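Forwarding these from the shared drive since the link keeps breaking.
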Amino acid sequence: MAIITISRGSMSGGMAFAECLAKALGYPSLAREVLVQAAGKLGVSEEQLRGKIEKSARFWERMTSDRRIYLIALQSALADASVGGDLVYHGHAGHLLLKDLPNVLRVRLIAPMSARIREVMERQGLNYGSARDYIRLVDEERVRWTKFVYGLDWRDPQNYDIVINLGNIEIGTACAMVAAAVKLPAFATTEEVRKWLRDYALACKIKVALAANSKWRSIKFDVRADDGKVEVFGEVATGGVLIRQAGPSEEEVQTIAKAVEGVKEVVVNLRRFPEFAEP
């Protein structure tokens, strides 16, 4: 079986589809729960994390290091939830957070604007024009956000395995189609896949532990794990000719990584380079 990520515009039937699919397959269905777990990893409230994640791209341009740690925590929480191999996730860019994993079926839902407008009018008590403007604003902000964070347009069908138009196919039929697809051998959760999921979740936990150190938030660490054997890579700016910066030592990185449960062995590779100010 598979991990299924659901991407949709606001008021496009994503929650109803996710609930239908989870019931049909007997899978857990997660969205908000992943935010709660991610917030716990950072020791902040769900509201704080949601506020950070949902800020506009313009805000993130001024908060690059904070953006990285919040996204790493969200990725780690989703990776933890995915270890079992059976999951329906409809939340923040799941298909991008799990882009490196096998066994993921990426579903994109689209719905007619008229249906989405009616949904907003009913839920929020808005008139037609205000509901239409609300949807356009949310969609445009989501496009800016994903382009800034991932360099992709979340509406591009190339980012998905299946695109379903709920204007042509009702939710029950769409649910049955996807439920049948994940039962194919291509999506079988083999022992090899389970190992990959465990290794990926461990690597994400180490990234969170390293990013949590406020002195190192500007450093982008890459982590690979293989049955508890871990390699950590990073690029450290040491400052320019006049200013020296003390980046982390290999021993410091190793100590933090070894403290993560499940780690047996750690190798650290840091590339140091001078950072020169632009004239």
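-- next protein --
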Amino acid sequence: MAVTYTSTRNRQETATASQAILKGLADNGGLFVPDSIPALDVDFGTLAQMSYQEVAYEVMSRMLTDFTEEELKHCINSAYDKKFDTEKIAPLVKKAGAWYLELFHGSTIAFKDMALSILPYLLVTSARKNHVENEIVILTATSGDTGKAALAGFADVPGTRIIVFYPKNGVSPIQEKQMVTQKGANTSVVGIIGNFDDAQTGVKNMFNDKQLAKELNEKGFQFSSANSINIGRLVPQMVYYVYAYARLVAEGEVKAGDPINVVVPTGNFGNILAAYYAKEMGLPIRKFICASNENKVLYDFFSTGVYDRNRPFILTSSPSMDILISSNLERLIYRIAGDDAERNAALMKSLTAEGRYEIDDNMRQKLSEFYGGYADEAETAAAIKRVYESDAYVMDTHTAVASSVYDKYVKETGDGTPTVIASTASPYKFTRSVMEALRGDCGDASDFELVDALNSLSGVPVPQAVEEIRTAPVLHDTVCDKADMEKIVRGILL
């Protein structure tokens, strides 16, 4: 059955999977959503015998129905290869009463690799399928991890360019060094004076600028997105939840069909939405535990039904979650509004105009599968120390937020359902915060001195992604005001 993609703000705007991947963002700021999610008609016993790549094909072929088997398998096998430091791609590790799904074994040591390793192949294939002759310009905003993973994925890919905006003072030193040392003749990295929401808003405004699109087209360019608003990011993320469940079945930890819970450290809502879509495909997930840091806009939303971004923006030790506008939540809002594009568009208009919206009681009832929790900075550090002392396992700050929230959830509910925690980044990406949690004030030690200290403490090898930037030269040093983002893009392309 062919799956058609529809705009969350206009049901008349539809696209095939490849067209939605190419376009990235629907007109009027809407996001593409599947008109239906097919059942995963492969039993879990069979999936339990499959490799990550094989599970990926079973999941993605149900969602990307205008890709041929040959095209899709080429994309999958090109993405999930030696770029990952384990053949399992996404191993499960049982620690401290939960299963940690390690999503950081790719080339940039963050979960964004899981989707951004395949997106360039999906995009190039989509361009060929739709006879696109323009050069594809990947325009993206990052809160830290998407930027480097997208840069690594698209560097020197023929027919593409990539421009990444990041908050100059809102990412970790390792994250920034990873981006500004990125090689590739088609890559551009720009720091902005502002926060991630400013960067994301600037990018969305350029996507919706019809005059800019006309000028770019005349010069042989067209925008596409590598952010999680692109359905080509979201579908690959469904895979690892199905794979994790299949591994639990294979290892006898759950019986096929038994429910699990998932805990996801959440900023832009894409990662947890992928789990929600996986459930709609047939994965038996009982509870979606949405873990926020001190920028707890999602916690407040699940608690009250009010989404309100009118609050101070807090820089935390988990910067990839320092977000007040969770773009992918719109896809869930559309679903719980009964696929009512007009209702959804009105709510999003209210968010733009007033910075807030409120859902009705009927919509709130449809969120009963979600549990919102948050961890402050002290609780995040305490979780890192607790799990290290109990299990000799070192987590990054984002995973620690999830671990802390899960601990609260169990104490509050007594729910003993087997639980998978999405472990979204290597601790080496946030060494100062991790080492301070474990050993206290790190003083004047450099970030790379702390890398070596963490290596001595944990015994976990330093990832190649960190080793290679120790002495790498800075290749991108542009910084601009948030108001000048379009001017910078014009300078790069026009």
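The domain at 92-109+232-461 is CATH 3.40.50.1100 (Rossmann fold). The longest strand covers residues 160-167.

- D.
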